[in-house]
Amino acid sequence: MWWDERVSARFRRNLQPTLTYWSVFFSFGLCIAFLGPTLLDLRCQTQSSLSQITCVFFSQQFCLLLGSCLGGVFKRTLAQSLFALFASSLAISLVFAIIPLCHNVVVLAVVMAVAGLAMGCIDTISNMQLVKIYQKDSAIFLQALHFFVGFGALLSPLIADPFLSDTNCILSNSTANASSNLPHIRKSLVPHHPGNLSHYDLPMKGMVVTRVSYAFWIMALINLAMETRPAEKDDLSTTVQRPHAAGGHDDLFSCCQSKNFRGASYTYFAVHITGALVLFMTDGIVGEYSGFIYSYAVEEPLSVVHKVAGYLPSLFWGFITLGRLISIPVSYRMKPATMVFINVVGVLMSFLLLLIFSRSVVFLFVGTASLGLFLSSTFPSMLAYTEDILQYKGCATTVLVTGAGIGEMVLQLLVGSIIHDQGSYSFLVCGMIFGGLAFTFYAFLLFFHRMYPKPSSDVDDASPAKPAVTDDTGQYQR
Predict the structure, then answer these.
(1) Backbone φ and ψ of 477, nearest 5°
(2) Whole-model pTM above 0.85?
(3) Mean pLDDT across 446-473
(4) How far apart (Å, rounded) are the C-alpha atoms in residues 55 and 219?
(5) CA angle 195, 201, 207 (to 5 degrees)
């Protein structure tokens, strides 16, 4: 194996929970990218307008953020975290089985909100527990975790595609014009911003003809197949009942309690805040770029044909997934701080070149691939780096996951409004500004890292603050 025997032995000791976190994150990736392609068919199923159906996006994303904040509640034992993942995965399976039965947009929004809560719990718990298990060695396992979510998000549209309607799925006298523009509408529809499509006449009444139900039932079966029992090892039930002793890693609301702040230096807060702001920007870039790159490409001055422009989001996510795969071995040889520096500089340079060659269709594809590659490993590298600075005693995982989720929501809303008012060119200008801010916040993080109190010299080098060690079962003890 290309890693050393110490890391390999640690992986073997924690094989079952690690594979559980990876498998549920693959399922999480399938689910999080599934709503977008199927949204027009769900509009037909619920006989709602474009503006009404986009509320489903909001309900899912808002509750995903809320679930991320609350995920740290399930941190005390390995058994508790694995059971929470099992329950969340089961909830997602049930949601996808129920969606075809939802014929009212409000009911659909409530059901997707439940799925969002479950996805948020999966997001926080999986990141948090891998950091707890592997600590100084967590970077490589976090890179693998985020490869699986990217791989799932890449496969999800492929699963949905055979069941999507080729023509308007509500049959009425006015379907002809809308049907011819259906692929363009599907690619242009992003969360909260159906306004640029309001001139298309999409009927809300008539006979509904859609096969999207089969796609959701297939997704439910895949989720059930990916579920892992919360206690698979024979000795798990006897070894994980003791609570984790490691400090920090609470849910966001527990982290904000005043007792956690007593005696903390200003750099403790600064590391949390600057780390979250970096991911606020970079994850926000992922959301706004994937959401609006198609709309940008088909507008002047590029005027890319709809079919060709449709490949851009897939290219972006494909290189994100490729980058995460490459980052698994790279993260073993390179420090997380170095990887984040390369990422934020690469994002900034990609946007700069996209602006310089803004009239080149060829470079739009090259820049999209480059941007996906540099954004790919930012989150896991940033998480590993920030936790290392805080010596695994802070609330970095919960704060960073929450910051990233807020950024993805807020920057999509912001960019959509700016494009509507200022035109398509502002799309790249916004990306350049966000990339510059990400680099600036990272520079501040490096500064606060230098100011942060160093661990005492009598602590083992393999675990700077030695807040916890693991036995062969992965249980944390002092």
Answers:
(1) -140, 160
(2) no
(3) 57
(4) 22
(5) 125
